[in-house]
Amino acid sequence: MLNFTVGPVQSSQSVRAIGAEQIPYFRTKEFSEIMFENEKLIKKFAYASDEDNVVFITGSGTASMEAAIINTLNEKDKALVVNGGSFGERFVKLCEIHGINFDQIKLDAGKTLDKDILYRYDNKGYTAFIVNVHETSTGVLYDLNMISEFCKKNNLFLIVDAISSFLADPIKFKEQNIDVLITGSQKALACPPGVSVLLLNENAINRIESIPSKCMYLDLKDALNNARRGQTPFTPAVSVLLQINRRLKDIDANGGVEKEIERIADLAADFRKRIKAFPFEIFSNSLSNAVTPLCTKTASAKTIFETLKNEYGIWICPNGGELAEKVFRIGHLGELSEKDNDTLIEAFKDLNKRGLI
Ligand SMILES: *Cc1c(COP(=O)(O)O)cnc(C)c1O
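That is the input. Now the predicted structure with pyridoxal-5'-phosphate docked in place:
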């Protein structure tokens, strides 16, 4: 199998080897040390400061999205949610379920947020801003500097879902005044799914401490108390945390976050250059390094996905809903090389020869 989906993605040999080991008991000094190291490297790669805190949640990315909403916002807030696709929609749903007042900036699929639209919401009494910096469902990357400036001007608490963007696109936690940053184990971290990560600044911690707990499992007060001693309140996905440790140390040893972002950007650029020869259009007007969304001119995107999977052993990412027949996505995250791009391009050539695209 050759996996070009956007997650789970392919893991390195060193990460996979850990998955074959017995699971160690975790209420130990040794495991705490590993968790401290995980925290230190996440902070380093996000350009956070020493006082910021990291919490590891056992649960996919959505668990941390939900934890952010219920622990840092309350009924006094009025949030502004960017909704450009199914992940933006998820934050809308979370606000609805948990009774958080909000308005949404609804964007057309494939279109980024521009300054004109954003500043219609200037000085309107909002208290929080919620965004998936890379709306993975359509492959749109929003301008975090523009958003950060807007939030600073309006004094908004900024929650950023960077689940598919962290380690693939530049993010500066402190400099961009991000209060909560969320990521997950199965995207650019290239580990198995099951763990998500929250990076929290002092503002976020103050909010967490002043808001009464609404959920036991996702209580960030409890998680923060435990994290201070390198532990989690409940049994975590121990092996995934060990794999995250390996992966973070590998990135560090190979030149750090800048190098990793560059590696993914180069792979994406190589693919984007070569896909021009085929009858597809890039769907998004603002791309992340993580994903290339492609719109077909005549062929069915769903058939391309099925044929590549069943006849070539290549997995790309289909779209759902209204875009299912028109759009598919190629991920550039995880253990992939230019040689893998060659294989994919050869398969597209073959589909073309067969009259399928
Ligand atoms: C993958 C992803 C998520 C999390 O999805 P899970 O299936 O819960 O891991 C959330 N937001 C974005 C932008 C994502 O790409």
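Residues 256-353 form a domain with the Aspartate Aminotransferase, domain 1 fold (CATH 3.90.1150.10).
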